[in-house]
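Possible regression after last week's pipeline update?

I re-ran a chain I had predicted before the update to compare outputs. Posting the input and the new output here so someone can diff against the archived version. Not blocking, just want to make sure nothing changed silently.
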Amino acid sequence: MQALPILGKLGALQCVPSFQFNRSKSAKPKGGCIVQVEPRDQSTQDLSNPVSEPVIPSERGVFYRYSAEFTGERPLCYLMKCKANKSRPINDAEQNANEIDLTFVFGNGVRVCSPKALLSLQLLDDRVVAGALNQTWISSAGISEQTFQQLRELKDGSALARVARVAISRNDQIVTLTPGTILAVTTESGKYGLFLVKEITESSVKVDACHILL
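New output (post-update):
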């Protein structure tokens, strides 16, 4: 398996194996060679301006970085453009099931889940047919907070995707969150993301995050 450099500026994190993302709904990403797609544009959320409610899908090759808060009233996570609200109320699932990338489940701790995980299906109840949901692979990113912040500041989409691809080997559909947790996310639709848990309560979680659609 060929190793690819991540970022010379990221200290000890220099190279990782590469993976080919498999878009099949029934299969996880498989090992192999990849064709790198460099971000053609970059976008940063202006936290001084409110985000909007319309669903605005991510554009391919654009790096997005932002902060977001998820609550019991807004537990759905849509990895969309920066000006679109990432946290969504449960009723949004009825019109946009295929845009759900993660769910946050509160009670007995705070857990982040793949849309197809059992906890997500229980949360969504009968609003969505399970077959309409996409799969998301979630795991510990295996990087330090310093590395996360450097990668996010440099807006390097290729490095972000490589970290997420390696983390797939530690995949789980449900992860219990604690302050400082850094998650890597890979979606069936080709999105790669990193989340840093900044604050957490019984009914809310605040994150710094970034993602790219390749």
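Follow-up from reviewer: compared with the archived run. The chain has a mean pLDDT of 81. Marking as no regression found.
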